[in-house]
Amino acid sequence: MNEELWNENAERMATQRDAEASSRFAPLLVKAYGIRRLRSICLSLCNRLEHGSFYSRTLREILSRYHGVTIGKYSYGPILTPGILPVGTIVGNYCSIGAGLVVLRRNHPFDRLSQHPFFYNSGLGYLRKDTIPSNSENPLTIGHDVWIGERVSILAGCKSVGNGAVIAAGSVVTRDVPPYTIVAGVPAKKLKMRFEEEVADGLEKLRWWELNLTSLLTQKKWILQPLTVESLNYFNNLMTPKK
Q1: What contacts 24+ positions apart, CB below 8 Å, involve 94-98?
Q2: Does the predicted model carry a pTM greater than 0.85?
């Protein structure tokens, strides 16, 4: 039954799109992006020439070089819009990010006489240097295959969202989210784990997110099924080097 749900050309399509995820114009687009008035054109061409933001390697190169943000393969959402993520943010592979994400890496200094930016932000001209840590000094790392719902805020107290975690829509995340944990609320709290411990441990060892889409599609038997220890064995065969 699972086989019937897949398009017969799924693997071929994935292979083609991966092969075309970096166009012959990639070096030119990356260089041209340095000219501010050309930036919107460059971003549009990345999407048109490289099958959109799911695939575009040039878009990821632009974000890394000009905005200090690392986005893994196939991850999508507002994280691919320049300026949405603070400098130093790292996002893994296969992540799904909803609209309205807010990531904040700095807090106002509430233990001082005043919390006003005049007294911590050197960009306003009164200080020689900032008196609170910069964005890059408190980076956020989002693991692989993370799902973040719409209108989520991730505050400075959260430094890591683990592999396979889920953050429900509208949540305000104030602390680290462990791998394969579903959290929700204001502030976000643990609802439950996605998998039993044995399955979660197996996924961490498997590191399936390092594979490209074509390789994953060779395992059609279990991809659409609820994950169990038994079904993990199918995928282990793919990940184990052949002698």
Answers
A1: 94/144, 94/145, 94/209, 95/142, 95/144, 95/145, 95/146, 95/147, 95/148, 96/146, 96/147, 96/148, 97/146, 97/148, 98/148, 98/149, 98/150, 98/151, 98/152, 98/169
A2: yes
Q: What is the pLDDT of residues 128-145, one digit of tens each?
A: 999 999 999 999 999 999
H or E element, residue 3:
helix 2-5
**Position 168: which residue type?**
A
pLDDT digits (tens, 9 = 90+) for 111-131: 999 999 999 999 999 999 999
Are the CB atoms for 4 and 28 separated by under 8 Å?
Answer: no
Residues acting as catalytic residues: 108
Specify whether the CB–CB gap between 99 and 151 falls below 8 A. yes
Residue 27 zone, left/alpha/beta (φ > 0; ψ -120 to 50; rest): alpha
Give CA separation, 152 vs 98, 104, 146, 169, 215, in Å.
8, 11, 13, 6, 32
